[in-house]
Amino acid sequence: MSNSLRDPSVKTAAIGFLLVAPLVYFMSAQVLEHELGIGFLAWPINALMQNPAAGVFDVLTKILFLGGPTLALGLNLLHVVRLSGQTEPGSVTATVTVLRKPWNLAVAGLCLFMLFALSAYLVLENWRCMVGLRTEC
After folding, report:
1. Is residue 36 in some structural domain?
2. Is residue 136 a part of any domain in this protein?
3. Predicted local distance difference test score (pLDDT) of residue 96
């Protein structure tokens, strides 16, 4: 196992971390602002959302917050998961092998956690609209 940047799996982990970083920043800023009252990380985000060009920001955030971690997850899983299969008369055998590449596994785990956290955040933020308790959403 090599931790050198010459190793393609380490490069992929670094790229994956860069792809998931905007979502980590956004989620950290939201938790700090709404739960602890510390808003300095959220100020740039709030300023961008109040800008007249917020429509562009909305599109970019959807691409960054959903596409980035999803792409990072896929790229890192390509380095750690191996699928193989055999067919015999009357049966099919499939094998999933997970390689021990800690950087790729860490980034894949972070991506899964952040995508789950974003999903939970979206549901909790909008549940009143989903069940019809609020009409203006």
Report:
1. yes
2. no
3. 95
In a domain, 59, yes or no: yes
Report the C-alpha gap between 45 and 27 in whole angstroms.
11
HEC sequence for 68-118: HHHHHHHHHHHHHEEEEEEEECCEEEEEEEECCCHHHHHHHHHHHHHHHHH
Task: Say what the pTM is.
Answer: 0.81
Q: Report yes or no on 135 lying in a domain.
A: no
Domain housing 125: 8-130
Q: Cβ atoms within 10 A of the Cβ of 39, count? A: 14
User: What sign does the dihedral 110-61-66-63 (CA atoms) show?
Assistant: negative
Structurally, the chain folds into a number of domains equal to 1
CB contact set of 32 (below 8 Å; sequence gap of 6+): 38, 39, 41, 42
Predicted confidence at residue 17, as pLDDT, reads: 97
Half-sphere exposure of 14 (CA within 13 A, CB side): 9
What does the pLDDT look like over 62-121, one tens digit per residue?
Answer: 899 999 999 999 999 999 999 999 999 999 999 999 999 999 999 999 999 999 999 998
